[in-house]
Amino acid sequence: MMKIFFGIRGKLIGCFLLMTMTPLLTVSIVSYYNGKNAVEQRLIEQLTSITDLKKSELQSWLQERLLDTMVISQNKFLEAAFTSLFYIRRATDSVDSMLKSDVGREYHIRLLMYINKLKSTYRVFDEIYIIDIESGEILVSTNKDNVGKKEHDLLFFKDVLKTMGLPIKDIHHSNLTNQICMSFFGPIHKTDPVALLGSNIMIGALILRANIDETIEPMIQNWPGMGKTGETLLVRREGENVVFLNTLRHRKDSALKFKIPVTAKNAQASIMSSEGKEGIIKTTDYRNVPVLSAYRYLPMLKWGLVAKQDSEEVFAPINNLKRRVIILVIITTVGMIIAVFLIASSITNPIKELVQGAKSIGGGNLTQRISVKRKDEIGMLSDEFNKMTDKLEESYSVLEQKIDERTAKLKESEEKYRESINSANDAIFTLDINTAQIIDSNKKAEAVSGYSKAELCKLKVWDMYPVQDIPRLEDLWVQVKEKGSGILHDVNHKHKEGSVTPTSISASVIKYGNNIFVQYICSVITERKRLEQQIVRTERLAAIGELAAEVAHEINNPLGGIQNFTRMIEKEPANVQQTKEFTELIQEGLNRIEIIIKRLTTFTKANVLNLSHHDLNNIIKSSLIFMEHKLENENISLKKKLASRLPGVYVDCDNISQVVINLLANAIDSMPDGGNLSIESRLCNEHDSCVQFSISDTGYGINKEELDKIFDLFFTTKAKGKGIGIGLAISKRIIEDHGGMIRVVSSSGEGTTFTVCLPARNEEDTL
Questions:
Q1: Helix (H) or strand (E) holding 613
Q2: Which residues contact 524 (CB under 8 A, 6 or more apart)?
Q3: Average pLDDT, stretch 532-556?
Q4: What does R_g of the chain's alpha carbons equal in angstroms?
Q5: Which CATH number fits domain 74-200: 3.30.450, 3.90.930, 2.60.40, 2.30.30?
Q6: Is the pTM of this model over 0.70?
């Protein structure tokens, strides 16, 4: 017995067992822990992906509902119909009286038919109704039982609509329907029923109510691998408690009723998500059961979103893996011991030669042949290897030839496609569908943008447009990803050197092999814009013609004075003091005529900008120099607040200075008895990469009825003879030519504030 272990066979057996069992056990242990970690990581990633998906779905759902509400509430026909019903209600004692009247019933039926049609179109809402914004009465509703009732949330709706807050009533219990729901709402403005001309007067509120059990609940609870214990929770913080917003899988009738304190030791995922945190954690849930929870925060409504599953169910695959590894190790060990005894005596040099030959063939040397000559299985294996090598060599030769042929055809096809793209008259970009990164472009794209192909491939598509056009481009991007294609007209394409080119964009999803991209075609519409400008110029000339009589009157007034002063000088030529006084008045009259002529000429010529880099504060300071004497004469106090280290602007300095002087002159004219004037510069708090300045006065202000007309040509609120309504029209055109915007806030008797926003651009941005 002992001779077995001292012989060659015994030594081989001992060596084989030692060499095989040690790696086997090591590999088994390492494989188990690697597999355990991989499975655990996969489960965590799966739960994290589900949570991210549900967060994205919820955000998209909320955005879609807000868009639905905005579209419906801004429908002019709906506003006009409700305006008629609103005034009928004002003429009656009650809603019942309104409905009993012939005209009231007729308008109510028409409006009800319309909102019922909307309800059938937007099936996500289980009720649509409109309330009187002052009384809170429900004048029309898809649920006829609610007509005439008072809306309990009237004050909330009014406050949000007046402050332009988020028009959503968060998840709540409705007294009208006795359901858990959300309400989306929008303003109804007074609208002329005949001309469909709207106003800023809010007379009602459109409310669209969505049942949570039929909308959000199915959305968040439907995810793969949910198992028997998985569920998704929505929570929000109320004071020192966290409230569960949906019905829990393991606790019925819990929505808005079940709460836990923020100091609780369990349900940590729910507590942290309600505080705005995100992550994944092993913890206990509201049942004190160990769970794996992924949590996210929805800032729009300050919700916490939690997707969880019991740890026992989540990690069941890991426990199964452990059992399988143990069984596999036992079976492999037994098999290995048996195999070692069977093959120990057959381990010889021919096997080494066979292995070496196989490795050579595997390394690509198809001329290698195995020279083992034996009549046993090793010899047969050697022969088969040689036959296989012969076939591989033959197949490889044929395959190589086919690859060369197909490569040549593919190269020819690609060259033709590339040539057709490069010769296109439009700029064509190929974009990454996920990041909007530029992947490829044609020659026209380089010409339009001013960048080389290598430079373009480092940019995203947003980098080639002014900041004010990016929201429209983002909307187009969403449309292309959802519908496969989209078109956007009149977008300014930004050249590398800072100039802009008017373009029209057509984008569509394309597929190259297994990859999906967006083809982005940019057409230059400079000629079309030139024709449009000619049309605008023609319209301006027509408008000037209509005002010829008024302009003639404006010019005749100073001309009459000049003639009168000339006669007086002729009568008393020796009166030097009178001659000097009348000469100054004559010069003032001629200056006024010159100003009127120049302003009218501005609207008959295209505005050519001489752009260069400037400091906005320097432009403001130089403009104030021209107005200082007038401020002193009118007893007006000036307050300057100019922000330091503002980004530079790329503008026509004279044009911007003209805008500042126009706005200062208007402010001074609005304070005939003196007052306070302030001018302030700062970073824009509404747009990225923009600066702005504001000019405020304490003058007589502008009526709401006139506020929308002040930028119209020849419209003026000044007394007769003090202005012809050209200054603000010119200012608005100058700012828009620079890619900026101007807006006004004013109330009658409370002063006026003009704010001008301009794109910021440093010198290095144009290099």
A1: strand 612-614
A2: 426, 427, 448, 493, 501, 502, 503
A3: 60
A4: 40
A5: 3.30.450
A6: no
